[in-house]
Amino acid sequence: MEISSLLMYMGIGVTVPLVLYWIRKGASREIQPNAEGVYTLRMPPFFLYGALAFGVILLIFITAIMVDETEEQKGEAILIVTIFCTLVGLPSFLYYHFHRLVYNDQTVTATSWLGKSQTLSWDEIESAALGGMQGNYHVKGAGKVLKVSGYLVGFKHFQVEVERKLKKGTA
Question: How many angstroms separate the CA atoms of 43 and 51, rounded?
């Protein structure tokens, strides 16, 4: 194995756990309501940084390909990297920009990464559980399912609140 490959795998082995730790730490962070008693949970800034990083990678790659006169298949290389960076960077940006959870004493409103919102009152909530490969928290009731990312800053506070209200029978 080449030293460059070894360094790359070591970098990945260190970076991925650190990023996951940072995201989970944010999800466990205590949050405070605003003056009206409304809690707003948003995705951590890492999702924006990731989207920006893929944009920068794309620009650097396209610039490097355009400067390299020996590259014969510039169009194919640019297309492949553009598709990859877009497939990873765009959803990351959309999650950061749109996905949020807003709740107070009466209602819970979840906005998806595509900007679509659904609202349930606490009385309508019938069940809640972690589900899916993405680690979403599914809050079910009144024929609706609110899908909430477990990566939202302050998510643990919301999860505890839902479980507490379900046990009391007020959710």
Answer: 13
3-state SS class at 62:
helix
Backbone angles phi, psi at 44, to 5 degrees: -70, 155
> Dihedrals φ, ψ of 113, to 5°?
-70, -10
Q: What is the pTM of this model?
A: 0.75
Counting Cα atoms < 13 Å in the Cβ hemisphere of 143 gives: 0
Q: What is the full DSSP assignment across 67-99?
A: H-TT-S-HHHHHHHHHHHHHHHHHHHHHHHHH-
Residue 16 Cα distances to 22, 55, 89, 167, angstroms:
10, 19, 17, 36
59-113 pLDDT, tens digit each? 888 887 777 766 667 777 778 888 888 888 888 899 889 999 999 999 999 999 9
Under 8 Å between Cβ of 154 and 163: no
Torsion sign across C-alpha atoms 79, 85, 87, 93: negative
Structure tokens at 92: 């990351």
